[in-house]
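Tutorial handout. Part one gives the primary structure; part two gives the three-dimensional structure as tokens.
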Amino acid sequence: MKFGFSLVVRGSEATPETFAKMAEGAEALELDALWCSAHVIIPPQVKSGYVMIPGLKHPEHWKECYWEPFTVLSYLAGLTSRIQLGTSVVVMPMHNPFELAKQVAEVDQLSGGRFVFGIGVGWFEEEFRVLGQDFHNRGARTNEGLALMKALWGKDPVTFKGEHYSVENAYFAPKPVQQPSPPIWVAGSSKAALRRTARYGDVWHPARPQYDTLQASMAELNGYLEQEGRSPGNVEIGVKCHVVFQSGPPREDQPPTHGRAGDIADAIKRYRDLGVSQFVLDVLPESQAVALDTMDRFAQEVRPLVS
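Part two.
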């Protein structure tokens, strides 16, 4: 199994010093990856429910600061030598896929082939509106954008004709180090997300899934993989979840990855037994001190119990 942590890229403690200290700590602890989430702008949340849950508001500290992931990961590419650097996730249909393809390729070059491209289709309709992007066709544009990006990362000259994006006899460089593309992680648990994973993804990336729903979704994903002519082993499962150390076991209203070291290890082993091979671990609250302490405790107390 592989374990990585989400960088503190939002809130008042999201600073270059925090990024550097987390990177230094992650390499010293021999963790596997560091990850960036992404939002461009935080408009008033009038209609959208956070992560598609009606009435749920995003955390208030997002308004204080939210760093752009490719800039942060380019910075860390020069400060690190081993760990993978990834997005968890870029909301792909809020962006021009030609520019995204360039950013992905350049971070992969700067890091020597250590970049991982995690993508989602988004939930924040108000943000789409501010950026002048259509919220309602975001899935179709994401699928076509992924196909376009893979073409851009291949041999020149590039010709691609789609409903939303087209290019003819063009040249695109640099190409990513990792060929035919950096690993693509596809977030989401909808049928559309599972189909997208089966067609374009290397890793399916659900957030905080319950064990029973994870198992059912994996069975559905395997069916879509067969339709694409791929075997289930072609796609790994990389779960995103919070890790919170506390003095007792998780309460009924808490995720299973809250608790003592043994409780967290038991939750990870349960996920492992269901087929999960990679983890993106979030910290709460999002501060430099909590991030560094959680990384250290996880590496020293939890990892030995699951290795």
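Part three, for discussion. The first helix runs from residue 16 to 28. The mean pLDDT is 97.
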